[in-house]
Every structure is written in structure tokens, then in C-alpha cells.
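INTERNAL AUDIT FORM
Audit reference: QA-55
Scope: verify that the stored structure record matches its stored sequence.
Auditor: D.O.
Record contents follow.
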Amino acid sequence: MNYLEFKFKIEPVNPFQDILIYELGNIGFESFTQDEQEVMAYIAECEFNKESLDELYLFTQEGVSLSYQTTSIPQQNWNAEWERNFPKVTVDDYCEIIAPFHEPSDAVKFQIHIEPKMSFGTGHHDTTFMMMQLMRTLDIKGKRAMDMGCGTGVLAILAFLEEAKQIVAVDIDDWAYENTIENCERNNSPSIEIHKGGADKIGASIFDIFIANINRNILLRDLDTYVKSMAVGADLLLSGFFVTDFDQMHQKLMALGLTQVNKVDRNNWCALHYKK
């Protein structure tokens, strides 16, 4: 699967860079980097809709200048780029995510070894980082855990390291599914059940911990299904959306009978912990 790289220039930068990222996330863009000059945004070529891009609010906002350049990135080249630019990720003294070419540290409780590829969830993104921080607050040992939208599988692997008794990892993307299989093998965690698909793969299973780091629209669509699969007293960890989405997410979760436990944010991204 090829990806498109967009290099956006917007003036004035504040607050419109963050608004741009928010709008791009709503039309299928998956990952972003930004500095004082530009925003780099990435979307699967098959998911890109130019009409949706042209309809962005910022293109019509008076006093805002927005332009972009586009480059197609073949999957092979994208992977090579990841491998050249994949720094170690350290989540406090709790966990580090390292590639084969990194030196492990003795200063953390857990290490997760992954092969850096296209899949979302390497720990570099703020949402994955926050989810790992929230997982640290849970008693996972002996629990049944679901990692919905598993990406690279790092959260499922972390649940394995925390001695969950049953772990299911699900992702709808072919590349993520294959990468999760590879990374579970790499981390000697063969008991993790890995499935390609979405909420339909939950079936009749019941979980004590449900983890979902996806985008806002999918979460809002599938939350009812997630909650039905949760045992009474189960923990729900969510991310993949912006701080500005919190009210909408909170109202939906409250309507489903869940209670808020924690809310954290990092660089305008949000992560939530609720309990059934």
C-alpha cells in the first residue's frame, strides 16, 4: 500500500497549524509531524479524496494562507525511511520500545522489540505513548485484554509482559496485522491472539481491559460494541483523537453507563480511562 506525503505551509502558524491537523485527521490522514514552518501529513493513497481536502474550512478562511506539495511514497521506501529515522521510545521508567539496531537500557521495567515498519503504534505517536502511561496504572495480571486497532502490537505485547492471561489483538489493516504477528514472535509472546478485522472480531468474548487507539469516528461508531464485550468493572482505555473531541467522547461514554477515571493529554492529543 502506497502512502501520500503532504507538506503543508500555513500562515499564520498559530493557531491554524493545530486546526489544520484536526481537520486532516477528520478526513483520513493518519500521522503528522510539525515544526514552525510546515506540517507533514500522511494518508494511504487509496483513502485520499481530493474533494474532501479542497473542502477544508481553512482554504476559505479569510486571512489564512494555505498551500501544499504532495509526494507519493511506495511502501518499500516508507519502510526504509522508518528504519533510518526510528529513535528509541522511552515511557518514563516503565517501558522502552527499541528496534534491532538499538542498545537496550537497564533503567526500565519492560522492553518491547519491534521492527519499525509502516504500522501505526510504534510509541512515537503521542496517543500510543499516553496509552502506555495509562496501562501502567492498571492491574493487568491475570486479566483478559483486547487491543483493538493494534497497529504494531506494542500495547498487546505490553499487556503480555504485564501477565494478562488472555490477549486479543485486532487490526483492519493488512500491514498492521502482519507486523503485529512479526512483533509478537520477536517478543516471544505467542499466546496473543491476532485477528485481521474490526469490531466484528470481538464475537462473544468478554474482556476485563479494553484498549482502543483508533480515530474518533470509528470509536464513536463502535463504542457500543466495545462496551458490550466488557465485564462489569472492566477498564476502557481510549485514544486517537484530539483534546477538542473530549466533550463528544465523554457524552457518548456517559450515555453508555461508564464512569470517568482519568484523562490525559499530550500535544493536543487526548487519552481516556473509563470504567464500566
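Auditor finding: record pair retrieved intact. The helical segments are 16-26, 50-54, 75-84, 126-136, 154-161, 174-186, 216-228, 246-255.
Action required: none
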